[in-house]
């Protein structure tokens, strides 16, 4: 069986919609390489509509190793409203009910931690979460797994502290007890 990995950046107070100054100063070459390595090891992207729309604008006209990887890999967009996927090459719309089948065929990488990630965790479809935490408190904004109903427990598998104070946490959903 393949897997679904969710990767996101959050501040210390859990905000995922952060201003650039809460993220970019804390990035390191080592962290960028780890992000590229994860993208290279994944077969396809699995994205919610909003994340896909933001990433398409951010990456489609860029070049370099990360941009080249993201632009060339298949992208599955979970949406019930979009009908055109021409804004970013290799993109296809799928329904939420198709994700389990995609997971059987591909190692999927999902960016962001909004509604799609929350639902994937709730339904037991996420195998791991890579959380990059910056040492900043922004005070307001959408938070990681906003809208979750109930406890979401994770086990820390691996952690890495960067020289900038950022942390990279590899988490797996905890087994139900």
Number of helices: 5
N/C terminus separation: 23 Å
The biggest sheet, with number of strands, parallel, antiparallel or mixed sense and barrel status, is: 8 strands, mixed
Q: What is the CATH C level class, in words?
A: Alpha Beta
Q: Please name the CATH topology.
A: Dihydrofolate Reductase, subunit A
Oligomeric state of the chains present here: single chain
What's the domain count? 1
Q: What's the CATH H-level superfamily name?
A: Dihydrofolate Reductase, subunit A
InterPro entries: DHFR-like_dom_sf, RibDG_C, Riboflavin_Biosynth_HTPR
Protein name: RibD domain-containing protein
GO molecular function: 5-amino-6-(5-phosphoribosylamino)uracil reductase activity
Organism: Motilibacter rhizosphaerae
Summarize the structure.
With 177 residues, this protein is of the alpha/beta class. Helices cover 27% and strands 27% of the residues.
Characterization of this structure:
- The chain has a single domain, classed as Dihydrofolate Reductase, subunit A (3-Layer(aba) Sandwich).
- Helix content is 27%, strand content 27%.
- It is built from 5 helices and 8 strands, in the order E-H-E-H-H-E-E-H-E-H-E-E-E.
- It has an 8-stranded mixed sheet, with helices on both faces.
- Helix 1 packs parallel to helix 3 (65-72).
- It comes from Motilibacter rhizosphaerae.
- One of its GO terms (molecular function) is 5-amino-6-(5-phosphoribosylamino)uracil reductase activity.
- This is RibD domain-containing protein.
- InterPro entries: DHFR-like_dom_sf, RibDG_C, Riboflavin_Biosynth_HTPR.
């Amino acid at each position: 069986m393949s897997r679904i990995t969710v990767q996101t950046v959050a501040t210390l107070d859990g905000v995922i919609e952060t201003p650039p100054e809460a993220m970019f100063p804390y990035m390191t070459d080592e962290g960028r390489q780890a992000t590229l390595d994860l993208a290279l090891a994944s077969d396809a992207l699995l994205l919610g509509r909003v994340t896909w729309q933001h990433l398409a604008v951010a990456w489609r006209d860029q070049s370099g190793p990360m941009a080249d990887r993201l632009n060339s890999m298949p992208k599955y967009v979970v949406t019930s409203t979009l009908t055109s996927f021409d804004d970013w090459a290799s993109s296809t719309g799928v329904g939420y009910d198709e994700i389990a089948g995609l997971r059987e065929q591909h190692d999927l990488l999902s960016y962001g931690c909004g509604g799609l990630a929350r639902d994937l965790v709730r339904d037991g479809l996420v195998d791991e979460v890579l959380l990059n935490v910056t040492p900043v408190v922004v005070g307001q904004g959408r938070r990681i797994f906003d809208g979750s109903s109930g406890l979401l427990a994770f086990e820390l598998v691996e952690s890495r502290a960067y020289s900038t104070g950022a942390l990279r946490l590899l988490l797996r959903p905890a087994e139900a007890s």
